[in-house]
């Protein structure tokens, strides 16, 4: 009856090994990297709901998804949500919008009401860098 114990031990070792690999595979980012929302400003009131989101980045470069180079990534905007798990791919849904073509500005449309926006830089595989590079969260109101 040693085999179930052996299998459990192997499963635990494999799980620990894979979790360590996921962390080790995160793409490094410079400590001084900064991502920020250029427009709209925090507290902006937007009439009609359609607006241009303009994204800024310092001490790193922007490249499309799939481009693996040191000190580059691409933007993701988080709408009305908190930061996701930092060791997994950034979700792709209505609250996590990917700009995988390397865009630094994009047209967004939001329904009337108060909304939060936050940027998170992702690597070639949409995984946040280490350390993660994210902006302050701002609030906008759509009328």
Note down, in words, how this protein is organized.
The protein is of the alpha+beta class. It has a single domain (28-142), classed as Immunoglobulins (Immunoglobulin-like, Sandwich). Helix content is 16%, strand content 35%. It contains one helix and nine strands; from the N terminus they run αβββββββββ. The strands form two sheets. Strands 2, 4, 5, 6, 8 and 9 form a six-stranded mixed sheet that branches. The protein is elongated. This is DUF4399 domain-containing protein.
Provide a quick synopsis of the model.
This protein has 143 residues and is α+β, with helices and mostly antiparallel strands.
List the helices and strands and how they pair.
Elements: H1 2-24, E1 34-39, E2 45-46, E3 50-58, E4 61-62, E5 72-79, E6 96-98, E7 105-109, E8 113-122, E9 138-142
Parallel strand pairs: 2-9, 4-5
Antiparallel strand pairs: 1-3, 3-7, 5-6, 5-8, 8-9
Q: Which key terms come to mind for this protein?
A:
143 residues; alpha+beta; 3-stranded antiparallel β-sheet; 1 helix; elongated; DUF4399; DUF4399 domain-containing protein; signal
Strand count, sense and barrel status of the largest sheet are: 6 strands, mixed
Number of strands: 9
Overall average pLDDT: 88
- Radius of gyration computed on alpha carbons: 19 Å
The number of helices is: 1
End-to-end separation in angstroms reads: 68 Å
Strand pairing plus helix content: what structural class?
alpha+beta
CATH fold field value: Immunoglobulin-like
Which CATH class is shown? Mainly Beta
Tell me the series of helices and strands, N- to C-terminal. Answer: HEEEEEEEEE
In which range does the helix fraction lie? 10-25%
Overall number of domains: 1
Beta-strand fraction estimate: 25-35%
User: Which architecture would the CATH scheme give at its second level?
Assistant: Sandwich
> In terms of per-residue confidence, which ranges show pLDDT below 50 for 5 or more consecutive residues?
1-24
Shape: elongated
> CATH H level: which superfamily?
Immunoglobulins
Oligomeric description of these chains = single chain
């Amino acid at each position: 009856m040693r085999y179930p114990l052996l299998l459990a031990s192997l499963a635990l070792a494999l799980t620990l090994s894979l979790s360590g690999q996921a962390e080790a595979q995160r793409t490094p980012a410079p400590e001084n990297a900064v991502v920020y929302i250029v427009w709209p400003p925090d507290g902006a009131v937007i009439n009609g709901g359609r607006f241009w989101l303009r994204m800024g980045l310092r001490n790193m470069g922007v490249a499309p998804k799939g481009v693996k180079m040191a000190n580059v990534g691409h933007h993701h905007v988080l709408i009305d949500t908190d930061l996701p798990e930092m060791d997994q791919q950034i979700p792709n849904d209505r609250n996590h919008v990917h700009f995988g073509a390397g865009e630094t500005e994009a047209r967004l449309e939001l329904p009337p009401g108060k909304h939060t926006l936050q940027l998170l830089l992702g690597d070639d595989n949409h995984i946040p860098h280490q350390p993660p590079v994210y902006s302050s969260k701002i609030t906008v109101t759509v009328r």
